[in-house]
Amino acid sequence: MVRVKNRYILIQFMCNNLSDTDAFALTSSHLANLLREKIGKYYGEFGLASTLRLHVIYFNEKTRLCIIQTRHGPHRFVTSILPLLTVADTETVRYRTLYVGATLQQCHKFIVRYQQEYVNKMIGNYKGVAQKERFVEDVTKVNKI
């Protein structure tokens, strides 16, 4: 018996018009529909049929990280479509593929390392100890998948 191999694609989306603290109206179901629509446009029925098992399994508006689960093979359709997506609702958005992994655990490890590097880089911008602790709490509490 052959098992189904999945790939987990970790992406980061950035909105050009909004700052890091503003709310963003993109949801996980809306992102999945956008991906399916563009895959259908560029790859036709074959691409659309091969990505039927496309799921957004982790979506965080605050850190703007997202994990997309799809089958091995058609994951290349998803990673090639991401640079072509530029609009979500009315906002201009950029998508970056940060990591493509075979297990969800490896994606989680990458998120933890990525967030730690982000904290180390941004911690110098805060003056008080309370502000630094609040910033670290906000970043680390969203790492639970």
Give an overview in words.
- The protein has 145 residues and is α+β, with helices and mostly antiparallel strands.
- Helix content is 42%, strand content 25%.
- The chain contains 4 helices and 5 strands.
- The protein has helices at residues 28-50, 75-81, 104-122, 129-140, and strands spanning 6-15, 55-60, 65-71, 87-88, 91-101.
- A 5-stranded antiparallel β-sheet has the order 2-3-1-5-4.
- Helix 3 (104-122) runs antiparallel to helix 4.
- The chain is globular, with a radius of gyration of 17 Å.
- The two termini are 30 Å apart.
- 19% of the residues are buried.
- The model has no long low-confidence stretch (mean pLDDT 83).
Instruction: Report low-confidence residues grouped into runs of 5 or more.
Output: none
Determine the N-to-C terminus distance: 30 Å
Widest beta sheet: strand line-up: 2-3-1-5-4
Task: Tell me the overall shape.
Answer: globular
- Radius of gyration of CA atoms, rounded to a whole number: 17 Å
Largest sheet: 5 strands, antiparallel
Roughly how much helix do the residues carry, as a percent range?
40-55%
Output the helix-strand order.
EHEEHEEHH
